[in-house]
């Protein structure tokens, strides 16, 4: 049975993602090069908005709305976070950034999606480190969810205090929509659909999840078109190769964590998991280290 509400939510999420950058690579780059932390603040707002919605609904309707399960700590979580950062650097955009760039007309990022699918398969075939598999779900119990929801709400108010550019409100809206998406379909992400394609499991998946992944990108395309941001960019072999290799590395990382940075930011962190927070900050640290190394080499060349 097709879940119409999920399809509408993912389309709306894609449209909002086309209007505001939630790309971790762009956010870290701006913070390091211009001391502009607005990109990182938008990431925090999106996570906070998703956290408020997801935790409140999980607390009100336990058993109906589920939270992500904790993943036992292992080396794959650390390695996966680092690989997500390295892959995003090579690709020039993270999972969420790829939605933005592809929706805006850069068709090179189609190869990012192919690379992510190949990376998910390669991680299993190489089996160098333990992969966690798909993240499970748990029922909200005790008062942890309430404390978490209150913390995210306070963080949201703090980030919106006084200075309130439109981009921050759009980031919050993206988080609120993502919270509704994950409340409706725990563990959803377009990466899970790519992983199923890579492993030949698409026929066993819920078709609502398959269609909603397509509608996420359709929404991004519609959002970019309506806002005048759509600019078709022809494929270029060097850029396409970077996207394919970057996607491959990110796909390997996502298999190890588990989850790409989209599900980490909008599902695992809002759901109060330690593995999600650790992997995401390792990804950010890896991206920052990459830009720092690049700046140092540029300075030496001069």
Short description:
The protein is mostly helical. It has helices at 4-17, 24-34, 38-60, 75-91, 95-103, 110-126, 144-160, 166-184, 190-198, 207-226, 237-256, 261-268, 274-301; strands spanning 67-68, 137-138.
Provide an overview of this structure.
With 302 residues, the protein is mainly alpha-helical. It has one domain (4-301). The chain has helices spanning 4-17, 24-34, 38-60, 75-91, 95-103, 110-126, 144-160, 166-184, 190-198, 207-226, 237-256, 261-268, 274-301, and strands at 67-68, 137-138. The protein has a two-stranded antiparallel ribbon. α3 packs parallel to α8. It starts with a helix and ends with a helix.
The computed structural class is mainly alpha
Mean pLDDT: 90
The tally of helices reads: 13
- Round the Cα radius of gyration to an integer and report it: 18 Å
Unreliable segments of 5+ consecutive residues: none
Query: Largest sheet, described in full?
Result: 2 strands, antiparallel
**Strand arrangement, largest sheet?**
1-2
Oligomeric state of the chains? single chain
- Cα(first) to Cα(last) distance is 61 Å
Q: How many individual β-strands?
A: 2
The proportion of strand residues reads under 5%
Number of domains: 1
Q: Could you list some keywords that capture this structure?
A:
single chain, 302 residues, mainly alpha, two-stranded antiparallel sheet, 1% strand, globular
């Amino acid at each position: 049975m097709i879940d119409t509400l999920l399809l509408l939510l993912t389309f709306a999420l894609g449209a909002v993602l086309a209007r505001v950058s939630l790309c971790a690579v762009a956010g870290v780059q701006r913070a390091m090069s211009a001391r502009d932390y607005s990109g990182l603040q938008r990431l925090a707002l999106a996570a906070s908005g998703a956290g408020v919605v997801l935790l409140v609904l999980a607390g009100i309707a336990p058993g109906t709305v589920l939270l992500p399960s904790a993943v036992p700590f292992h080396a794959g979580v650390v390695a996966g976070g680092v690989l997500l950062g390295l892959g995003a650097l090579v690709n020039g955009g993270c999972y969420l950034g790829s939605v933005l760039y592809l929706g805006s007309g850069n068709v090179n990022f189609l190869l990012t999606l192919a690379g992510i699918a190949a990376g998910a398969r390669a991680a299993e075939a190489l089996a160098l480190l333990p992969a966690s598999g798909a993240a499970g779900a748990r029922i909200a119990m005790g008062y942890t969810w309430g404390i978490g929801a209150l913390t995210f709400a306070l963080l949201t108010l703090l980030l919106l205090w006084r200075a309130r550019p439109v981009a921050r409100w759009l980031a919050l809206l993206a988080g609120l929509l993502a919270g509704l998406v994950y409340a409706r379909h725990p563990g959803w992400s377009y990466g899970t659909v790519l992983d199923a394609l890579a492993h030949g499991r698409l026929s066993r998946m819920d078709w609502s999840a398959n269609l909603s992944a397509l509608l996420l990108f359709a929404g991004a395309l519609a959002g970019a078109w309506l806002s005048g941001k759509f600019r078709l960019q022809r494929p270029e072999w060097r850029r396409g190769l970077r996207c394919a290799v970057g996607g491959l590395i990110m796909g390997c990382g996502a298999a190890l964590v588990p989850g790409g940075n989209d599900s980490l930011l909008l599902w695992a962190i809002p759901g109060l998991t330690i593995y999600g927070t650790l992997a995401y900050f390792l990804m950010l640290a890896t991206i920052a280290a990459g830009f720092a190394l690049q700046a140092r080499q540029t300075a030496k060349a001069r």
